[in-house]
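Could you please consider the sequence and fold appended to this message?
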Amino acid sequence: MKSTLLALFFLPLCSQIDGQTSKITYGLEYSPNFTSNTNPSSTIVNTNGGFRLAHNLFLKGGYKVATDLYVTAGVGFFTTREFVSFELDGHEGINKIESDRFHSYMVAPVGIKYAMGSFFISPEIGIGWNTGNSSKDHFYYSDGSQIEGSSDDDNNLQDVNEITYPVFLSFGNEIKMKNCSVILGVKGYYSLNSIGNKYFNSGHYYGFGIVGGVQF
């Protein structure tokens, strides 16, 4: 269903006739995805929050170096999330704190794209810079009351690594049109370094989802 909606969004940008054969390509890719991290839980800290929705958006360029093979590079906006639950057992009147943390990056990936007919596969590696962090917190008190709060600054997430090194793998179909191509596929990613280390190691983020785009 999501792939169909993406196709309906990108198809009006192109007229369906013939494919293009330029050695240089450029375009836009968007991927809604589900993200988590590898941080193990402990007796005090629980990180088993499951997957959470995240997004990434990239401007991509490619140069044809051989038949059906392109070298690719891009730049874009990338987000990931982590869930943390602290069990305090009534310390200072608080039983538990749940924190949903958001991390944003500007990422520049490079890689290759290999086509087999309309099917393609594209591995990439990138470097990214942390551009912002925020959190939504839920406090559970011993008297049964609850309070929710949020933070849009970096004070409580100041130990997030400034640099990230994600690897990506995409595969799917490229639908040729007269003036462009529509991209529909699946995309996964994993960070080679951890998110950071505030009170514990945050682990490595990873995720997967659909990818859609338009290429000229």
Notes: The first helix runs from residue 2 to 10. The helical segments are 2-10. Residues 2-11, 15-20 have pLDDT under 50 and may be disordered. The two ends are 25 Å apart (CA to CA).
